[in-house]
Amino acid sequence: MAEELQLRIHGDVSLPTLIYLPGLHGDWTLIGSFRKNIVGRARFVEITYPRTLTWSLDDYAATIEAALAHNGITRGWLLGESYGSQVLWALVGRAPVPAKQSAKTDSREPRATCLIAITKAARQEPRPTKQRKRISKSKA
Asked: Residues 6 or more apart from 28 whose CB is under 8 A from it?
């Protein structure tokens, strides 16, 4: 895999980390206004995919995992936009399953991973409105 993935990291390491996986456009060009709105609230990690047609979802996931580890990022929230949600699931599938907690384990330590997957279908699903209800009632 000669192609390169790029990372940009914004914000202090003490803030919660939000890792953005872009859609098919493959870069951070469409996320600028969102990035500006979370300044001071999160450490924001942006990814640009390499321009390649040969990578599998597992190639993307493995490369992202390695790039995050190289930058000391071991925890965070994942935000996958459209195609990025497919990469997100491949990345999550690579995560080791935690061993069953014993009674001696400190249960106060957070163990859950939170995911936000935004897919094109979810964004386009119509929401019912009062106007639609009125229209449907008047036809009856």
From this structure: 8, 20, 22, 35, 46, 47, 48
CATH class of 6-97+111-122: alpha beta
Per residue in 8-33, pLDDT tens? 999 999 999 999 999 988 888 888 88
Q: Is the pTM of this model over 0.70?
A: no
To the nearest 5 percent, what fractions of the chain are helix, strand and coil? 35, 20, 50
Residue (of 85, 6, 3, 96) closest to 51 by Cα position: 3
DSSP 8-class letter at 128? P
In sign, the C-alpha dihedral spanning 28, 39, 66, 83 is negative
The residue whose two tokens read 């490369």 is 63
Q: Model confidence over 110-124: pLDDT tens digits?
A: 333 444 443 333 344
Query: Does residue 81 contact residue 120 with C-beta atoms inside 8 Å?
Result: no
Could you state, in order of their start, the residue ranges of all structural domains in the chain?
Answer: 6-97+111-122
Cβ(46)–Cβ(31) under 8 Å? yes
